[in-house]
Amino acid sequence: MDKLVIQGGAPLRGAIAVSGSKNAALPILMASILAEEPITYTNVPRLRDIFTTNKLLAILGCPAEFDGHTVTVTPCDLKPEAPYDLVKTMRASVLCLGPLLARLGEARVALPGGCAIGARPVDLHLTALEKMGATFDLDSGYIQGHCKKLRGAHIHFDFPTVGGTENLLMAATLAEGETVLENVAREPEVVDLANFLIACGAKIEGHGSSIIKVQGVSRLGGCEYRIMPDRIEAGTFMVAAGITGGDLLLTDCPFEELEAVIAKLRDMGLVIEREGARDVRVTHNGHLRARDVTTRPFPGFPTDMQAQIMALMTIASGAGVVEETIFENRFMHVPELVRMGADVKLSGHTAVVRGVQRLIGAPVMASDLRASASLVLAGLAAQGETHVQRIYHLDRGYERIEEKLNAVGARITRMPE
């Protein structure tokens, strides 16, 4: 297992290319199951979760070849079972459920992480698919699904679940008749999935709004498709510019998709401007101000940026309240930031952050993907040396993050723990 050793205090200056989006690539790769012809994906990030997805696709009968940042998937002899050995490492594996039922009429998918069938969010997927004619049993830790043919249905989600929207959207493309999905997730990654399905021949309207309508078709073909850039990676690098007092040009950077993040960072004192069609420059105006942040479904402030903006707030003047409304237990980075000298007080789903003059390097442990990013950011700003342990979380969502940051002035070394 590796760790990152960070020598803090260096302002970051230069250009960083934003990688393709992991959160968009995972469901789009799973949608390969729906197609009857080869598909070529470009701008695919080389991440652990992507390699796991490719292994799963091969087991399901859709062998995938990875060459640079291009993945070619060739659907052939489809099989219905997603084994526990792969599913346990990646919750997104449950996204093969809808496509398998749509193509084969059966699916046997291990419960992700061994969670109970009534636990959010898997039950939302199953309840919605049942309205389309599927039946489910729990068999030795596997979700066993069957249907003669999925039928269009009117489905209202209790809350806008991203995974549930993606699973039902994929299933509906080959269902009989019209499917109406209400109160759906509006995230850009959902829109990217819909755009990909349309490129393969699906009939979809309303993606990006709260209601999506799908007219089922008899088959989907192949295409070549470019994965959207990663808005969370881009947001993380924006914070890196601010927390180090730097000047970064982010190339192939999504802008509209980051509107809520950019608005908050500007309010905190960063200067963020577009340069050309797809580049964004981020600079520090010399004074950071703490602000309140509440996570919301898109187009609100994304929960995946909560830990990173909290790291920035630890050295901003004044105090701010961070409220987490999407996920329970998503403040596990707080004790680690406190170890570095941050002043953060937790109360339920809120954290009060009071800025300090400086952070001090310390050994810290990553608990999840975005917590890992926040600790790297804190380490970049801290005085002295920070050791970020258990970075396998980080490698699930950031492609060569230490190489990208070192190229613009960071001092980060990857080494065995």
Rg from C-alpha positions? 22 Å
- The CATH homologous superfamily of the largest domain is named Enolpyruvate transferase domain
Number of DSSP-assigned strands: 24
**Which sequence of strands runs across the widest sheet?**
22-23-1-24
- Could you say how many structural domains there are in total? 2
Proportion in helices: 25-40%
What gap, in angstroms, lies between the N and C termini? Answer: 6 Å
- Give the overall silhouette: elongated
Q: Give me the oligomer status.
A: single chain
Annotate the secondary structure layout.
Layout: E1 2-7, E2 13-17, H1 22-30, E3 39-42, H2 48-59, E4 64-67, E5 70-73, E6 81-82, H3 84-87, H4 97-104, E7 106-110, H5 122-131, E8 135-139, E9 142-146, E10 154-156, H6 162-172, E11 178-182, H7 188-199, E12 203-205, E13 211-215, E14 224-226, H8 231-243, E15 247-251, H9 259-268, E16 270-275, E17 279-284, E18 293-294, H10 306-313, E19 319-323, H11 334-339, E20 343-347, E21 350-354, E22 363-365, H12 369-381, E23 385-389, H13 392-395, H14 401-406, E24 412-416
Parallel strand pairs: 2-15, 3-14, 6-7, 10-11, 18-19, 22-23
Antiparallel strand pairs: 1-23, 1-24, 3-5, 4-5, 7-9, 8-9, 11-13, 12-13, 15-17, 16-17, 19-21, 20-21
How would you sum up this structure, described in words?
The chain has two domains: 2-19 and 229-416, Enolpyruvate transferase domain (UDP-n-acetylglucosamine1-carboxyvinyl-transferase, Chain, Alpha-beta prism), CATH 3.65.10.10; 22-226, Alpha-beta prism (UDP-n-acetylglucosamine1-carboxyvinyl-transferase, Chain), CATH 3.65.10. Helix content is 30%, strand content 25%. The protein has 14 helices and 24 strands. It has a four-stranded mixed beta sheet with strand order 22-23-1-24. Strands 2-15-17-16 form a four-stranded mixed beta sheet. β8 (135-139) and β9 (142-146) form a beta hairpin. The protein is elongated, with a radius of gyration of 22 Å. Mean pLDDT is 94; it is low at 114-120.
